[in-house]
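Subject: sequence -> structure tokens, single chain

Hey, anyone have a minute? Need the predicted structure for the following. Not urgent.
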Amino acid sequence: MLEPRRLRFRFTKTGKIRFTSHRDVARMWERALRRSGLPVAFSQGFSPHPLLSFGLALPTGCESNGEYIDARLDEARPDELSPADLPDLLTGLLPDGISVQAVAPVGMAEGSLQQEVASCDWDLEVLGVVGEELTERVERVLAAPSLTVQRERKGRQVEDDIRPAILALAVTFDIDSEQKDSEQGEHLIGRLRAELATHPRGVRPSDLLSAFGTDVVLARACRTHQWIERDGARYEPLSLRGPGTDPVVMHAAGRAS
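Reply:
Had a minute. Here:
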């Protein structure tokens, strides 16, 4: 018996579509895959649904250069579409801002994306504090033995220590001279690069910024990479550069990828 077929899709979520919820994006994908003619498998029972598995939910309002979805294919239906044809086809069926970058088969033995992804890289733009002051706050965050923040869980406020989830953090630049404000003059924008763990509980950019003080405001957040760590190796769920060629990124917090 042949192994069931499974495809992994990598896509972006940028621009205005970032304000669309994770659930709505899932519905968009279901419609696009149905219209594409790809033989996606369906569940059994009274209300069949496509066998799709999404990666980590992206917080509403955040952008991403690399999101993922797995689709199980129906072995009983012929598949006349090549993975090489699917990025352009599906991008044309999805809203502006969602661009399919790559498609590749993955083995059924691979774990789910939500279980496998151990950490994510983020580019964050912040307002309120820049330059040396922002650098000093980053240093204080990294030096802190614990960072307790309030988060909402199941409709109630709880306190969590997010410090173990901050794997790397650094200031990358602190001024954008292109942005102007008619009343306040030049906007000062701080930019941070962070790597945040996803287990045992993920940390959102807003959670991280809450540890900086109320005068630091998140202006933009973009998830740039998601990382799987296994047997000492570290790689993306689906690389744009081929196996073994994921970019090496050095972090100022003392961790190298």
